[in-house]
Amino acid sequence: MGLGQLISWTSRQIRSRFFESLLIILAISLGVAVLSVVGTVVIKGTRELNMSDPEQNTITIQQKVDDYRTFYKSGNKIPAQLVGSIEAEEVKLSLDFIEDLQIAIPEIDTILAYEHQGGRLKGAPPMNETDWRSGPDPNWLTIIWTLPNLITFLNGELEKGSFYTLDDFKNQEAVAVIGYDLAQDLFPDKDPLGQLIELEHIDTPLTVIGVLKKVPEEIPERYTQFSWFRSEMNRYIFSPRHNCNQTNDPIFSSITLVPKNDDPTAKVKDYLLARYGDSLSVESAREELQFFLKSMQPMLIFIGGLASLALFIASLNILNLMLARVLKRTKSIGISKAIGASKSNIFWQFLIESLSLGLLGGLVGLGLVALATPLLKSLGEIFAISLPTVFLSLGASLTVSLIFGIYPAIKASRINPVDALRAE
Amino acid sequence: MENFKFLLLMIKKRPLRFILTTLQIALGVLAAALIFNIHFGLTDMINNTASQTSEEFLQVSIFEEEKMEDGNIIHAMGNKRLSSKLLQELANNTNSILGISSQNYFHDLLLVDKNLYRPVGAFSAGASFNQTFPLEFINGSFYTEAEEKDNKTVISEALAKTLFGTTDVLGETIGVTTSKDSEPTNYLVTGVFKELPPTITMLLGPVNMVLTPPSYMISESFVEFSLRIEKNQFTEIKSAIEELVFQECGPEAKVTIDTAQTLLNQIKSSTDSFLKILGILAFAAVVVSSIGILSIMLVNILERTREIGLRRALGATKGTIFGQMLYESIMLSNIGGFMGLILAAIVSRFFNVGKILNFMYINMQTTQSSLSWQAALLSLALASIVGGLFGIYPAYQAAQYSPVESLRD
């Protein structure tokens, strides 16, 4: 029996029991519709949380005592974790510390260290009360005190001038690399290079040695702790000079590690513990996410279970009705067998029938989702169906109809022609 | 009784079909029962939490609305304040206000514990704190107004046990600092209190330690303060506070007043949309299982055409046949419904409200760990309705069979 014959036989069967088949298809389609919408949300959600981007895998090191979150991380429960000894000498997050760490752990790609500082432009008119209400101070400039590698890490390119070097940083030179928009605002008619930026409460004015190219405003693919930098870079001042005149051996309050591909958190923790004792807090973004996901887990399992329940019920329906069909057709199967149909002929007849019911159900289900798309989109972009979900739902409906169609098909193929013909 | 015999016969003849049909219903009922259970569990949890005390606690904050350049409105706090004198007057003039106080929260407070730092959140407050939030003491008592200038503290049972291993710690001192760069200040422990009820911790967060305010924190005017009031006086006191703020701070000042109840309502409304999504999923499962019973009943009557014809020929009326078929479908649904309840009772042991809503960090105790009776009853009713509704059409079909034609088949 060829495929064409099988299909025409199947369509005849479906037509002859039209209402019943319609109900099966409807049941499957509802199950598929629910599963595909929930599946889309889960797939899109996990893709959003996909940690393939090293920027999302950062590790932050700071003094444990400074990390006030230790209390919150213990769930606000007493006893909170004990941190940092009162007598122990503080581990200084200095340039030497960074260099040692980079050598000790080759899995680290970049070590960033920065602090937000800032000040008001000298000579700017003071803010009065109405100004405060109208928004942030336009004369307040943000200075990022950082190692030079942060600018290259953020893909900052020079419009003119040059970057400062690590030596400039070590010497705490009073120089600055500024964003494009800021350069336009501060020095509209002049060449910004070599100009001085003077801020209140800061003794040494900063000399502009470089201007960055304009960073286009675009919505980032995913949000990381650096997204904000990128969106604000056009107005930032990057400088090696600390506000408070840290002339010798600058110390950072926290440093950020960007790993290569593997997650080196455990290695970093071991290394720091062995070398400096238990006084530094090591915070990995991946661990935070896992912690978050773990709290979501019961809910996700619950929703996933509910979403697959409908399809499972629908497949029980297939099983039930296919068994009834086998029973109903016992006599005709007997006749087919008596005139020469093989076991596998009968088996395939019934399996193809349940598979096509499943496939039709899947297609109708997708149609339902397509109809509901405007409604789903209004709930949120994450609900809009995508290609992987189409495959997921068709695959799911075919799989269940295969699994639950096998038993009736086997039962049909085993029918003994003699008994079948004798039976009422 | 006759109907029941026919049902038993049918079950005996097609046991697998019976199992599959009831299982379909059971799974539909399971989905419905779980959702009902979450709904009732949440309502219970909220009612339990709210009814724990006979008094209400209010957290008031005064702010101004500011329009930002991007059109967003932010709450600016600090400019508009009420003086402590005015607050005291308000309390004296209103009988239903039982206590009024203001406290500050140090989120970065470090305790010195055997030469190690231990980060703990703590409140700095005057003696009036105890009038607003009456603490229940195991040992000692709250510091008095006269002691406010000294360094005194009261700590929770849990903190006492953590720091000293015992609750008998009166006269001990605790070193406290906000930064590792500065010398710790010693505070004398004057009392150890029991854990506070959720009506208070929902407003304040966890209270582990209350200490006398450092001099730089003592203020004569407040943007935030707390009240203890008699139950059911909320609306009256709310308008009294709003009027006072309007008079003192001008029309641009606004007030938010939180109580445990308003916070609970917020939690409820934020979980409502989540429950709706779950409800849709469960509804789909119920619809699919009703389609299941409809289609299998249609097959049933088709297979029993001869039986029905024979009964009609022997004198059964259309009504009898209709009744019998409807009875079968309702019975199947109810048997399925009971199976579903058993499943739901098992599943809800593993997924109670607290666990499912875990990710929302709701700080409440849940007592519910099994299926609530309301949920069970509702889902059984649902099963009967489904069986009845979707059994009508097949039963009607069966009743239409003409005896002559059915027997000729």
What are the defining features of this structure?
heterodimer, A: 424 residues, alpha+beta, four-stranded antiparallel beta sheet, 15% strand, B: 409 residues, five-stranded antiparallel beta sheet
Number of helices of chain A: 15
Mean residue pLDDT of chain B: 84
Number of domains of chain A: 2
Helix content of chain B: 40-55%
Task: Determine the N-to-C terminus distance of chain A.
Answer: 28 Å
Helical coverage of chain A, percent range: 40-55%
- Describe the biggest sheet of chain A? 7 strands, mixed
Uncertain spans of chain A: none
Total of DSSP H or I helical runs spanning 4+ residues of chain B: 13
Oligomer: heterodimer
Task: Describe this structure in a few short sentences.
Chain A is an alpha+beta fold. Chain A folds into two domains: 3-50 and 296-422, no CATH class; 92-276, no CATH class. Chain A contains 15 helices and 14 strands.
Describe the structure.
The complex is a heterodimer of chains A (424) and B (409). Chain A is of the alpha+beta class. Chain A contains 15 helices and 14 strands. Chain A has two domains: 175 residues, no CATH class; 185 residues, no CATH class. In chain A, strands 5, 6, 7, 8, 9, 10 and 11 form a seven-stranded mixed beta sheet that branches. Chain A has a four-stranded antiparallel beta sheet with strand order 4-13-1-14. The longest helix of chain A has 44 residues. Chain B is α+β, with helices and mostly antiparallel strands and 409 residues long. Helices cover 53% and strands 20% of the residues of chain B. In chain B, strands 5, 6, 7, 8, 9, 10, 11, 12 and 13 form a nine-stranded mixed beta sheet that branches. In chain B, strands 1, 2, 4, 15 and 16 form a five-stranded antiparallel beta sheet that branches. A two-stranded antiparallel sheet of chain B has the order 3-14. Chain B starts with a helix and ends with a helix. Classes of the chains: A alpha+beta (424), B alpha+beta (409). The interface between A and B is large, with 58 and 62 residues. Strand 2 of chain A pairs antiparallel with strand 7 of chain B.
